[in-house]
Amino acid sequence: MTNAAAPILSLRNIRKSYGPIEVLHGIDLDVRPGEVVALLGENGAGKSTISKIISGTTPQSSGEMTWQGKPYAPSSPREAIDAGVGMIHQELMLLPHLTIAENVFVGRYPRRAGLVDRQAMNDQARSGLERLGLNISPARRVDGLSTANQQLVEIAKALTLNARLLILDEPTAALGGEETQKLFEQIARLKADGVGIIYISHRLEEIRKVADRIVVMRDGSKVEEFDSADIPVRQIVEAMVGRQLERMFPALPTPSDEPVLEVRNLTSARGDFEDINFTVRRGEILGIAGLVGAGRTELVRAIAGADPIASGTVLLKGRDITPKSPRDAIRNGIVLVPEDRKLQGLVLDHTIAENIGYANLTKVSTGGIVTTGKVNAFADNNIHRFGVKGRGPQKANELSGGNQQKVVIAKWLAREPSVVVLDEPTRGIDVGARSSIYDIIVGLAQEGVAVIVVSSDLEEVLGVSNRIMVMAAGRQSGILDHADANDVSVMELATA
């Protein structure tokens, strides 16, 4: 592939309006065969809208597209797929009651003598999974798979399309380093086969590894285009946010010596982790790192009472409060901001005010009766406190990912807990919203709260943690002080 190659896809003056509001303002974009174009921007910049137009989910209001030199205007995702355009969505689109293989081939099952050829379907799905390093039966139902494994299934689904253009929307958001590397290997093979790729990600460091060109969007417009991905991250970020960026991570506070949360010999009833020991002090941020499958999410869910514990104890300020349910943990002052905010953190078709109120019923009721006035007033206070860009009566599904995450954080922090656990707090969130969430995390520690942050983003866990506990294959492989922690030292423990 050279820059002189004819584009496989061209967009010219693409505009999109919803009623009187124009959200895309004359976008021009070319993608050539065998190249990766990184499409970057904050939440709301227009990246997803462009992707939906190209993949046939929504039509443009005006402008033209050409695909392999011919006019292109898909009226449905099926039409786009048939033309050779596939998309991996940021939000998982799997059907939990179907098997992995059925999800991979849904709508296009291989047939033999008029019947679904399950053997061929399973074999082809297994091949796609193995290419990504996922050793799991394609006959297993999707229900119960971890978020990371569901993401790998979505990617395997796209790999089986034999598409000539792939749109990857946050494909590594739920993946660790090893899984991300395997995806990059597949991208390199696709490039060699002449497949064009549009790559959307908030993980800017990985852009340098995978992209050939960078297109930056802001507020529905294309504002910058770089002919190389070898661009300083700060320069990319400043193009995204439209201003100079002073810092990404705030200064960390110094914790006290007072232990708040103590975990002793904790072992999962499901075999996800074993013999975990650590302490989180007042005003301390403990990061938990490790590869996908290391048991990080399962550990914090157990501490929060959501997953069963086989043995061991959880102590809060010296008192055994080992939770048997989320209600136990919440009542004792331990709250969890889960990794999947849409499925586990919010009631999406309810309002911001209602979502905040659900976790704080005693504060929005009088004599056991919840009043709309109290809910709205309580929510407004916390919307302002945590910088949510939205109004109480607005539905949660109308918010950007960053603001949805702030609502989840707000509803739990309004309870004034002693321990806050955040699992993948900035997954799929743009750089501007990330910075404000980091400020919230550090602000909690400054107020004396004990904070635990689980993250697959190594830069993130290094940037916000006083100490980092590293897990590998369900075991605790070490705890590093902030001064001793770096990419190499964490990964050495993660692969031990």
Q: Main sheet: which strands, in order across?
A: 6-9-10-3-11-12
Low-confidence stretches: none
User: What portion of residues is helical?
Assistant: 25-40%
**Span between termini:** 40 Å
Query: What is the fold-level CATH name, i.e. the topology of the largest domain?
Result: Rossmann fold
The CATH architecture of the largest domain is 3-Layer(aba) Sandwich
At a glance:
This protein is of the alpha/beta class and 496 residues long. 33% of the residues lie in helices and 26% in strands. The protein has two domains: 9-241, P-loop containing nucleotide triphosphate hydrolases (Rossmann fold); 259-494, Rossmann fold (3-Layer(aba) Sandwich), CATH 3.40.50.300.
Identify the notable features of this structure and list them briefly.
496 residues, 24 strands, alpha/beta, 33% helix, Rossmann fold, 2 domains, globular, 6-stranded mixed sheet, single chain
Q: Would you give an account of this structure?
A:
This protein is α/β, with parallel strands linked by helices and 496 residues long. A six-stranded mixed beta sheet has the order 6-9-10-3-11-12, with helices on both faces. The chain folds into two domains: 9-241, Rossmann fold (3-Layer(aba) Sandwich); 259-494, Rossmann fold. It is 33% helix and 26% strand. One of its GO terms (molecular function) is ATP binding. It comes from Sagittula stellata (strain ATCC 700073 / DSM 11524 / E-37).
